[in-house]
Amino acid sequence: EKITLSVIKADVGGLCGHTSAPEELMDACEFVLEEALDELIIDYYVTKCGDDVDLIMTHQKGTDNKEIHGLAWSAFEEATEVAKELKLYGAGQDLLSEGFTGNVKGMGPGCAEMEFVERPSEPVIVFCSDKTDPAAFNLPFYRMFADPFNTPGLVYDKKMQTGFDFDVLDIYQNKKILLNTPKETYQLLALIGNLETYSVKSVYRARDGEIAATCSADKLSKVGGKYVGKDDPVAIVRPQSGMPSVGEILEAFAKPHMVPGWMRGCHWGPLMPVGEDDANPTRFDGPPRIFALGFQLSKGRLVGPNDFFADVGFDSARKKALEMADMIREMGPFQPHRLSESMMEYSSIKKVLADLEDRFVPNEKHEVVDKLTYDVEDQS
Ligand code: F6R
Ligand code: MG
Ligand code: MG
Q1: Which tens digits make up the pLDDT trace of 305-344?
Q2: Three-state secondary structure along the chain?
Q3: Is 227 an active-site residue?
């Protein structure tokens, strides 16, 4: 019997700016999900990461199911009512469409789902983040499933020796490609090292095609001048028994890496692993953060969670992330702290630049160098 684990998230308002979703919003969501218990869903857990509310649900309806997505949408609608009543900041921010049309994708919320047959014991890890985008998972997914320095199980566990298949999405062109590691490691890195264009959507164990990980990466769609469902991603990873262990999966966040997001969705910053209670990004609206909740599934029941990054073992990762934050903050509005225009999420920088367009005059003192002379010819 197959179980589906759906994690659907949305920002429906913050308590004082974009820092935190208050309890009232989670209560409103829980009220809606409670009603659907035993009818539509088997179990649920509601949490928040910064200003994002995350609905973790189990059911048997499969992925991309209209009723499940509709349920999440109504929970967020209910929470939006509360957010409006409390005049929270950005109330209803991610519910960009007027009415629900069958799938939350492309409507504002983000979603990660996987369907599988529950193993004799089925541990799962749900990751929730704020102030970053799905490409934040490119490097950690690589570390978990393709880097033996992170995951010694790739070397020691025979079940993993044929490696993992990475499903990579070109978010601009809405195309995808499946690449195997270790066979195509270098080709994979050639793509996913580019956090602007490529996002790892899912990872499968090559031996049997069993799903190992998935995140809320999706094609880039714009609604009302805002990229939708792109920010503050969620992910699901299945550890143990021929998959990387819990510790190997968490280890991918022990050396913080730079991700796009942070202040105004316009800056590179370190992804800081924190406990559930510390997911209230404040400094410069950040730094970007992530927490990891471990559950055991029991016929779809969510037993747990175990708040992994609350562990003291991640103290030095946090310290390092804060040092990285200090360092890159010194750059202010200069690259590489500032994202390229094409990656900036909410800013009107393009408008600012367009307004200056007419004021540019030719620089006659210097000849314009033909751009082509810079292009290096075929290096092979
Ligand atoms: C980034 C984020 C915040 C806001 C910033 C400005 O994801 O949520 O950094 O972009 O606080 O917010 P507005 O323009 O809504 O006042
Ligand atoms: Mg917000
Ligand atoms: Mg957010």
Answers
A1: 999 999 999 999 999 999 999 999 999 999 999 999 888 8
A2: CEEEEEEEEECCCECCCCCCCCHHHHHHHHHHHHHHECCCEEEEEEEEECCEEEEEEEECCCCCCHHHHHHHHHHHHHHHHHHHHCCCECCCCCCCCCCCCCCCCCCCCEEEEEEEECCCCEEEEEEEEECECHHHHHHHHHHHHHCCCCCCHHHHCHHHCCCEEEEEEECCCCEEEEEEECCCHHHHHHHHCCCCCEEEEEEEECCCCCEEEEECCCCCEEECCEEECCCCCEEEECCCCCCCCHHHHHHCCCCCCEEEECHHHCEEEECEECCHHHCCCCECCECCEEEEEEEEEECCEEEEEEEHHHCHHHHHHHHHHHHHHHHHHCCCCCCCCECCHHHCCCCCHHHHHHHHHHHCCCCCCCCCCCHHHHCCCCCC
A3: yes
C-beta 131 within 6 A of ligand 1: yes
| Residue of 9, 105, 201, 230 marked catalytic | 230
How close is the Cα of 147 to the center of ligand 2, in Å?
34
Which ligand has the shortest distance to the CA of 282? Answer: 1
Quote the ipTM score. 0.98
9 carries an active-site annotation: no
Atom of ligand 1 minimally distant from the CA of 14: 8
Atom 3, ligand 1: which residue's CA is nearest?
A: 264
Write the pLDDT tens digit of every residue in 26-74. Answer: 999 999 999 999 999 999 999 999 999 999 999 999 999 999 999 999 9
Which domains does the chain possess?
1-117 (3.30.70), 120-300+312-380 (no CATH)
What spacing in Å lies between the alpha carbon of 167 and ligand 1's midpoint? 31
The verdict on whether 158 is a catalytic residue reads: no
